[in-house]
Amino acid sequence: MDQAQSLREYMQRYKDQYQKKKTARFITITSGKGGVGKSNFTLNFALGLQTAGKKVIVLDMDMSTANINILMGVTPRYSLIDVLYQKKQIWDVIQKGTYGIEYISGGLEIQDLMELDQNKLLYFWNQIQELETYADFILLDTGAGISKELVDFILASDETIIVTTPEPTAIADSYAVLKTVLQFTKQVPTFHLMVNRAHSYREAAETSRSLMNACDNFLKLKLHALGFLMEDDHIGKSVRSQIPFFIAYPNCGASKTIKQMVNSYLPDIDASAQSAPPKGIRGFFEKVISLGKSAK
Question: pTM for the full model?
């Protein structure tokens, strides 16, 4: 076998191995206003994905009211800030919560990344890159409401789940978020809608239909219905006990709904990933920084 043939076979083997590597899918989860149960949904949805055999990391980027650790009754020792300024490794800042779910406390703003010198930024990239093939999904729990930072997160993500309740103010605020995001891009992002705290299936369906029709008619945006979570006493009990309802009450209505959401969501994601491969976590942060710089 000549040297050229050996090289070609080596490159083919390398290409095959590279293509088999998974790339983390980055999902922003947000809401138009606070108090709609966004963080609680994020945590339990993550547990549902994990139960389905997916590797999940929750990244808590709600700088004002970080709730993910509180919902599990744990206290994070480190955050991404420690990777930036204390030279911690990414494995140091990954914390384990209920049922082994892994989460990272963000604690940083886009400005923190933009102000790094080249050496620190390279170190951060090398650390964050470690998660690229470690996780299947990275769920970004953001602050509620409209901000430039939220818009950047959404535009940098592979897709976004927006959580609302049937309250008119929550619906209006969700619409405002979607409208604002579209003002900053010509490429329409992928949005999923989850209606929370509905008192009946009819109320949830009407809420979903109302927001989806408004987006379709006025924004030319197609929302994908992820599902509905009804009012369930087990949810409040789980929050007070600081144990996610998916673990504390696996047979309650809310937990069964999370399972149904995951079961319908994963096949859709697998199909869409073939046409639009995930950007990955480094792609996410690079996009966030470029958006932040372009706004200056």
Answer: 0.87
